[in-house]
Write a structure and sequence with these properties.
single chain, 6-stranded antiparallel sheet, 5-stranded antiparallel sheet, 40% helix, 24% strand, elongated, disordered C terminus
């Protein structure tokens, strides 16, 4: 028997090397010089979900997150051109499930023995968990920053002013809440515990509830009894409102609250109120970290409330003390030096002042020596034994009260002598000045702390006395463009702030508002300025704090506009969806009736028609004409819906070749009402190739330009004015689109500023000044350019240059006709749509087949469970109980393989999740209203694929 040949040693080494690679958790990869995968180990599938076989031969760029592709390509080019020896970076790779993972990439060139570049090799390490931890840390830092800002605002809030308002804004912005509010607890006339809303902060676009009368004097019992018990224990109320008791939902649901977090505010251990955080945008519960950090914020507010309560109580004690001082003298005493030594007299107020009454003083001659502060014992001995040097002069001695307090007693003494002039006793008056000394010490400490606080805060701050700056922190020096604080000393802060009242007005009351801050070089910034009166270095002064909010206001305005555009887009998508559903069966029914009339009723000019008219029967030809007109009108509605769908998603980033003339026609249709009474619309279209752009964003740009052009023309003279749309090539591979008008034009002095954010020549309330700025941003983002030419009184021309791509020849799809030998086989079709009329339409369209209709996703799954085996499934994407995606996923789990028979239908309203789902599957999507021929062809093809093959000659 022959022994088989043994394999060379290098085969075993290769197997061991491959075994190592296959068991690595890191992805090991190789690409060619164009970035196409040539090797991937199995860890690639574990990280992304894509198999190695389906990934090899494809460019690595296909698997990168779109936002990370430019940076990754830049590094790849640098490696190819030998500018870098290796590259290390972090990017996001897409996963099969439609998500993304963060990956740390290490890559270096692969060189042949002769130095020729073969491609790239390296590793990919999944760092998603670390990035998530970094995100959690960043979120914690955001909350901590908000807490610090809130503490600063609480510290700078003067007595008697709004305590809550300044503190709520940073908390709301950090937490992402829709509303943040404060309720205070109080008792009603009948003694019942009640709560009332005192302050509120709302996110942009959220309806305020501060003026809701139902939230004032709201009884805690019985609706909020659970809240009272939990908050009194120091617990929190949080969760989804849908899970709350019915009585609480009746209060919260009308406010649109989906989830809520309520934190107690306790003063001296007693519930004084609560601070709440609402979410009206999504039913999202707060996690433990947020609850802990927001609890700290509630605790800080509680401490401030407690401090205010303590200060109020202190002022009340001072009031009572003054009343007592008016009706009682200070401690009067007579101390005898001769035996028996001790107090001969002590006024009765001593008990209230010192904690020891006259009886204790008479019974213990050395009482004061026992209770004097150790450091002041020698001074007390001198005061009582040798008072002559202190006669008439106040002397302060510290006294230890029985309750542990230290009293500062101001003594004024006079010696009592006998006939020979010998001092035999000391007569004195002791006045308690403890509070005055503590106030002086506190004032010194507070002024030092105030200086340190102002120097440490990032906001610009100045202190003025008699209208002139006596102190400026480092932030103010740099903000105003100076080098040293001394350069600001003696100047007036009001000289740098526009629209600010003088010091006299500031002393009369706090001044808060947005002002323009003028730098040394003349540039201006928007700032929130707060000026408050205080005492500084023991004298009246005014502190002014200015916070630069220019970027925040710009961002806020952009977000407001973006929210408004998003709302319009959502409305347009919803309208399109609602129109498309009935339009689908209207068009189909009209077409069906037209076919029926054509096939089964006599034409209008034949003998049958004449006989029908003679018998008084209706004119079928006229019916046919009416049906044709109805079909034409419905088709026009379909075109309008298409325009709405285009404008419903202006925020998508997808760029594709577009027909510029189609975009302009859509814009003209949308702006027709604005143009009609002002000018005539002219079109001067040239022969241009498609442009590379996003349809929604490009439509937004030209709609803005066309509406601006119309608004630049006064109403009432449309026959004398025109708006012209011009397209042409520029000879440099770009398309030029001009929007010309014969309006009032743009003044030369503002021509250079029209693309600046917030700049507008329109009246207040007509525009925000962001339209042209956003247009400029969109066109620049597409790689194009936008310019303007204008002459006052003669009109304006906006010129947009866009990149283009010459259209590549597209293969003409060949639709195979039905085979004459076999024909279209009859199959079973399941229609899933929550609109019954749509189901009936599809039954008529597919009447050659056996059609079952389910009016919900749940009903469809029940039919499949009962054994229905459809050859094709036409399923609506958006349904109320189970969406098309839910039905698809359930079928893929329970009836594997049947998901390939799905054909989705839609009226056009997609959620983001639905759109991503449709992009991730190979199944077809049919738009409503239906192209009946295409519906039949697609279904016939699926049915034909399901029929068993028939062998030639019956074999």
């Amino acid at each position: 028997m022959q022994t088989p040949h043994s394999r060379p040693d290098w085969t075993a080494s290769e197997r061991r090397y491959r075994l190592v690679l296959d068991n690595l958790k890191e992805v090991v990869f190789q690409t060619d010089t164009l970035g196409v995968w040539t090797f991937l180990n199995p860890a690639w599938t574990e990280v992304t979900g894509f198999t190695v076989d389906e990934s090899l031969g494809k460019p690595y760029q296909e698997f990168l997150h779109p936002d990370d592709r430019p940076r990754a390509q830049e590094l790849f080019v640098a490696l190819v051109e030998r500018d870098l020896e290796f590259a290390r970076t972090e990017v996001r790779y897409l996963t099969r499930l439609g998500g993304a993972v963060w990956v740390e990439v290490f890559c270096r060139p692969m060189l042949a023995e002769d130095g020729t570049l073969l491609g790239m090799s390296g590793t990919l390490i999944d760092v998603t968990e670390r990035k998530a931890a970094d995100g959690a840390l960043a979120r914690r830092e955001r909350y901590l920053t908000a807490l610090v800002e809130m503490q600063q605002r609480l510290l700078t809030t003067p007595e008697g002013s709004d305590l809550y308002g300044p503190a709520l804004a940073p908390l709301g912005q950090a937490s992402g809440a829709s509303r943040v509010y404060v309720f205070e607890m109080h008792r009603g006339e009948d003694g019942a515990l009640m709560c009332s809303q005192r302050a509120e902060w709302c996110a942009p676009g959220v309806k305020p509830e501060i003026d809701n009368p139902d939230l004032q004097n709201l009884p805690m019992d019985p609706i909020l009894t659970r809240w009272t018990e939990a908050l009194s224990r120091g617990d929190v109320i949080d969760g989804l409102v849908a899970d709350f008791p019915e009585g609480e939902r009746a209060l919260l649901d009308p406010q649109g609250i989906l989830s809520i977090l309520v934190l107690p505010m306790r003063v001296q251990g007693v519930l004084a109120g609560f601070i709440g955080f609402d979410n009206v945008a999504e039913a999202r519960a707060w996690d433990r970290l947020e609850v802990d950090l927001l609890s700290a914020a509630a605790g800080a507010i509680s401490v401030t409330l407690e401090r205010r309560e303590s200060e109020r109580a202190l002022r009340e004690r001072e009031r009572r003390f003054r009343q007592l001082a008016e009706n009682a003298s200070d401690v009067l005493y007579l101390y005898r030096r001769e035996p028996p030594r001790g107090f001969a007299y002590v006024s009765r107020v001593a008990h209230a002042k010192l904690g020891y009454g006259p009886v204790e003083h008479y019974g213990e001659p050395d009482l004061w020596y026992q209770r004097v502060h150790p450091e002041d014992r020698a001074l007390l001995e001198q005061l009582l034994e040798a008072p002559q040097p202190f006669q008439g002069a106040p002397v302060v001695v510290r006294f230890l009260h029985p309750d542990g307090r230290t009293l500062w007693l101001e003594h004024v003494v006079a010696p009592v002598t006998d006939a020979s002039g010998r001092v035999v006793a000391v007569e004195g008056l002791a006045r308690d000045i403890t509070e005055r000394r503590e106030a002086e010490e506190a004032l010194k400490l507070s002024e030092a702390s105030f200086r340190a606080l102002l120097e440490g805060v990032p906001d610009a701050a100045a202190i003025e006395r008699d209208g002139h700056i006596v102190y400026a922190n480092a932030a103010l020096v740099s903000t105003l463009g100076f080098e040293r604080a001394e350069q600001l000393t003696g100047q007036r802060f009001g000289d740098f702030v526009k629209d600010m009242r003088g010091p006299e007005a500031v002393r009369a009351g706090a001044l808060t508002g947005e002002r323009r801050l003028v730098r040394r070089d003349g540039r201006t910034r928007v700032a929130e300025v707060v000026s408050l009166p205080l005492r500084f270095d023991g004298q009246p002064a005014v502190v002014s704090i200015a916070r630069d909010v220019t970027e925040q206001r710009q961002l806020q305005a952009r977000l407001t506009l973006a929210d408004r555009l998003a709302s319009v887009g959502t409305l347009a998508a919803g309208i399109a969806h609602e129109i498309n559903n009935p339009l689908a069966f209207v068009l189909s029914n009209l077409g069906f009736l037209a076919d029926e009339f054509r096939h089964h009723l006599p034409p209008g000019d034949g003998a049958s028609a004449i006989q029908a008219r003679m018998k008084g029967e209706p004119d079928v030809a006229e019916w046919h004409e009416v049906l044709n007109e109805a079909c034409e009108g419905a088709e026009r509605v379909r075109q309008i819906v298409r325009q709405l769908k285009t404008f419903s998603r202006p925020d998508e980033e997808r760029v594709s070749p577009l027909d510029m003339h189609s975009v302009l026609e859509s814009v003209a249709m949308m702006a027709a009402n604005e143009i009609r009474h002002r000018a005539q619309l002219r079109r001067d279209y040239g022969d241009i190739p498609p442009v590379m752009a996003n349809e929604g964003k490009l439509s937004q740009v030209f709609l803005n330009l066309v509406v601006n052009a119309a608004q630049a023309i006064p109403e009432g003279a449309a026959h004398r004015h025109e708006i012209r749309l011009v397209t042409r090539r520029d000879g440099h591979g770009r398309v030029v689109v001009e929007v010309q008008d014969t309006g009032v034009g743009i003044p030369r002095e503002v021509m250079d500023r029209i693309f600046d954010p917030f700049f507008t020549t329109k009246p207040v309330g007509v525009g925000t000044g962001l339209g042209l700025s956003i247009c400029h941003s969109i066109i620049s983002g597409l790689g194009g350019d936008i310019t303007v030419e204008s002459e006052p009184g003669r009109g304006t021309v906006f010129r947009v240059l866009l990149p283009t791509t010459e259209p590549k020849p597209r293969p003409v799809p060949v639709v195979a006709g039905p085979k004459q030998a076999r024909g279209a086989p009859r199959g079973r079709v399941l229609v899933v749509d929550d609109e019954p009329a749509v189901g009936r339409v599809l039954q008529r369209i597919l009447r050659e087949h056996q059609v079952e209709v389910a009016n919900s996703g749940r009903q469809a799954l029940e039919l499949l469970e009962r054994g229905l085996e459809p050859d094709a499934v036409l399923c609506d994407v958006m349904m109320p109980d189970l969406t098309g995606r839910d039905v698809y996923e359930a079928v893929r789990r329970e009836h594997a393989g049947m998901e390939g028979r799905f054909i989705f239908v839609s009226g056009g309203a997609f959620t983001t999740g639905a759109r991503e789902f449709l992009a991730s599957i190979p199944n077809l999507l049919l738009e409503k209203p239906f192209d009946e021929g295409r519906v039949r062809n697609v279904v016939d093809e699926l049915v034909r694929l399901r029929q068993p093959a028939v062998a030639p000659n019956g074999v």
